[in-house]
Amino acid sequence: MEFDKLVHQPTRLQIFAYLYRHGRSPFTELVTALDVTEGNLSSHLQTMESERAVVVEKEFVDRKPQTTYELTDEGNELFEDHVETLETLIDGLDG
Amino acid sequence: MEFDKLVHQPTRLQIFAYLYRHGRSPFTELVTALDVTEGNLSSHLQTMESERAVVVEKEFVDRKPQTTYELTDEGNELFEDHVETLETLIDGLDG
Fold it and tell me: What stretch or stretches form a coiled coil here (chains A, B) (predicted)?
């Protein structure tokens, strides 16, 4: 059984899950929802971005700069495969 | 969401799942079933043993030494809690 390290890391697993469920989301919303520090979240999102799992957009909303993140098709696929692996492991417990 | 590092590590997650499903199992069976090296498996089992998640037994079977591992009650509980956390994450995806 393969566990993709990019997805399996605990904080990133929650980032993938949040973006998978909510779609494009502001950085500030992720910080609050996942209860992580900004620095920790930034470094994980950079890792995800460098692996082309997320795309970042910077824009002005009501004249204020806002950074949003969204899973790429590749990121969606990586996450769906990982959930399938976890479900296989869990389903296998009942023997 | 808390992910217990002892359980969440990919190889250990599969060791927990295998012992949870099959009960007490020989080391050699784990090596084959999980497709890991003996050294890698030994080090993870030592980590699990030091956290009282497994107990090891050494005995002679047909005059040959055999080492078996079994989840402790604590190990079972840690694993069940972790599966519950994973299920909560997965169930939350459908919004």
Answer: none
The model's pLDDT over B47-76, given as tens digits with 9 standing for 90+, comes to: 999 999 999 999 998 999 999 999 999 999
CA dihedral (A44, A50, A53, A54) in degrees, to 10, reads: 70
Which among B5, B10, B86 has the least Cβ separation from residue A90? Answer: B86
Whether residue B30 lies inside any domain: the answer is yes
List CB contacts (< 8 A) between A90 and chain B. 83, 86-87
Please give the residue range of the domain that contains residue A70.
Answer: 5-89
Cβ within 8 Å, pair B93-A17: yes
Residues B17, A95: C-beta atoms closer than 8 Å: no
Segment A23-71, tens digit of pLDDT: 999 999 999 999 999 999 999 999 999 999 999 999 998 999 999 999 9
**Rounded to the nearest 5 degrees, what angle is found at the Cα of B82, between the Cα atoms of B23 and A36?**
155
